[in-house]
Amino acid sequence: MADTRTTGIPAKVTQGAKSKGGIGESTLRPDGTLKVTGEFAYSSDMWHEDMLWGQILRSTVAHAEIVSIDTSEALATAGVHAVLTHEDLPAAKNYGMEYQDTPVLAYGKVRHHGEPVALVAADHPETARRAAAKIRIEYRELPLVTDEASALAPDAILVHENRGDHHAGHVTHPNIVHRQPIIRGNAAEAAKKADAIVTGEYTFGMQDQAFLGPESGLAVPAEDGGVDLYVATQWLHSDLKQIAPCLGLPEEKVRMTMAGVGGAFGGREDISMQILASVLALRTGKPVKMVYNRYESFFGHVHRHPAKLYYEHGATKDGKLTHMKCKIVLDGGAYMSSTPSVVGNAASLSVGPYVVDDVEIEAIGLYTNNPPCGAMRGFGAVQACFAYEAQMDKLAAKLGMDPVEFRQKNAMEQGTIMPTGQPVDSPAPVAELLRRVKARPMPPERQWESSEGADVRALPGGLSNTTHGEGVVRGVGYAVGIKNVGFSEGFDDYSTAKIRLEVINGEAVATVHTAAAEVGQGGVTIHAQIARTELGVQQVTIHPADTQVGSAGSTSAGRQTYMTGGAIKNSCSIVREKVLEIGRRKFGSYHPAWASAELLLEGGKVVTDGGEALASLVDVLEDEAVEVEEEWRHRPTQPFDLVTGQGNGHVQYAFAAHRAVVEVDTELGLVKVIELACAQDVGKAINPLSVIGQIQGGTTQGLGVAVMEEIIVDPKTAKVKNPSFTDYLIPTLLDTPTIPVDYLELADPNAPYGVRGIGEAPTLSSTPAVLAAIRNATGLELTKTPVRPEHLTGT
Fold first, then answer.
1. Contact at 8 Å (CB) between 681 and 746?
2. I want to staple 94 with a disulfide (CB 3.0 to 4.6 A). Which of 6, 100, 315, 677 is the partner?
3. What does DSSP assign to residue 689?
4. Alpha-carbon distance 185 to 355, whole Å?
5. pLDDT per position as a tens digit, 569-597
6. How many other C-beta atoms can be found within 10 angstroms of the C-beta atom of residue 424?
7. What is the pTM of this model?
8. 381-399 and 339-348 are packed helices; what angle lies between their axes, rounded to 10 degrees?
9. Residue 81 contacts by C-beta under 8 Å, 6 or more apart in sequence?
């Protein structure tokens, strides 16, 4: 080998097999075994010698003036190193993703139950908790804003006086965060052509992301006066831009590294303990660890917006939709978070995946004294889908039509114009997805029966043994939804990838370095698969995500495979060209193909498109490394017009359909979901195993909000009544049905490899499918999520 390099002649190589683990293969997660055996290190597992523990004291009331704070007893507690209030903060006192309206520690007043007011650092977590409990706060309670009526009354209490955000100028009331109308055609005139009109009022409950890994992190003060922060988050660079001003530090002195994440689903997109741990670390000069317990976690992150939705649909007697009118009211809680974007999504997707030329839409987000709401999987489209799909069933029934055939008759397709005026310019197989779920064989009847007797686990009520089949009725329901992918409305959405290719121990090795948060979605496998495919190497190292590389944007909106996958593909292509330039320089005179052929990197070699191997990557690179860091953007989008709602606001749409089969104990009001089949277009399955996992996971979260999940806020006090997994229920293995998945691969020509975001769409249609099935079994209208036993029994 050494001799051939000296003479500049490539060693003789033969074409081998392509690198294994490329795109389209079901490669396994490298952290999968560690997670299922309990050996994976999550952010809550981090440890540092001589570290302190941070603890927050939160407000016990939802809206009040802070009259006084007495920290003296807490400061006198043995083992306590610091007790801080807003007066001790080093710089900016507010933060926020879009607008900085959220206090690091409350000052002047508190605006919701559980708002952080004071902060303790101690040498033991129990000491910190006891010291925090000794802080005395005197409140003067204020009237509450808890719903649409109290928020929009002419004499309503203002949650935020003297607003300075850019939305304030176009809303009709200071308690409206953002308003997005969409007007297309003439809904009033079109309604005159309708042979059937149905209306509905729907209520969607507040859902929690319910990630199992609580908010946690470790802040370590650095010798340069900065801080090194290890945290579980969804968007490192967004955190950085909010943290640095609150610490009074330049961004380069706040160095962030991703720690192990135990789920996210939107709940880690906002700041939780990042600023607080860093303030304590800088104040004490010691590393500070913070870990929320489950009670704190319910107050420590935003939730899904609860909503009231008012709909009207009309159709001709042959089943063609004539018009749609709707008003969507989203409760954003005490602070802005991402409410404006959720409002935009809810409005622009409120028609669903249907052709309706005449629409009149209004969506608003409110400020209230309820818990803050923001990003959660589905992001405004979930609430809308619940309502419009109930409307589709209601209208089909009024027309005497099959609910699936009615949907298919009105289904959008490629070329359909959205209510915003945007054409759907990639495949939209809505009718086909419905056909596939309907065509699936039905699960067997009375599965609880066997020759050995009843298996109560297959019955409503399960192991509580409430029934052996008497009073149990089967129901079947269908739903389909539409979700945007990526950031919208003119946001500069991009991702950055640094790719390095070099020879290590006699083998070509690629290193992929991005700031993309791995929150369970599968980037840890997909990033390596793309690098193997593009660079033709087997060995790929995934560098830990941190802020030493450019932003990758948030792991949300189904965007990371599209965006960071696109960035990796783009950077790899530049690396490949640089490698080929080196090869041409070294070996070009020895084979004409170096100059004339289309060259590829495959199996660790440079090969022609005809399969002839020209040189190994080891020979080409020798001691030279090729490194590229580049940003990559999707095509631009536009803000929606604030009067008409027109504009090309979204970059891509995703579609999923579900069929739910349920069995309902009509006497006790208990529901057992037997099967929840899904069909979805994924564009291109980069990792089929991950695709199925994402679809099944999203489906399960939709199931949860259909029959059990809701944060209950007392309307009289605005206090959360069930901040625990004892009282806030999520589906367990016994609650989760069989979830057959049928996916299509209809490539989006505008996306890398034709991919389509997949993580959110199944969360939309699973909820209304389950509700439709329960309606089918009981004959009840059921206009609220979640469905509870008392809704079915009337008790």
1. yes
2. 100
3. H
4. 13
5. 999 999 999 999 999 999 998 899 999 88
6. 20
7. 0.96
8. 20
9. 52, 121, 122, 123, 284, 286
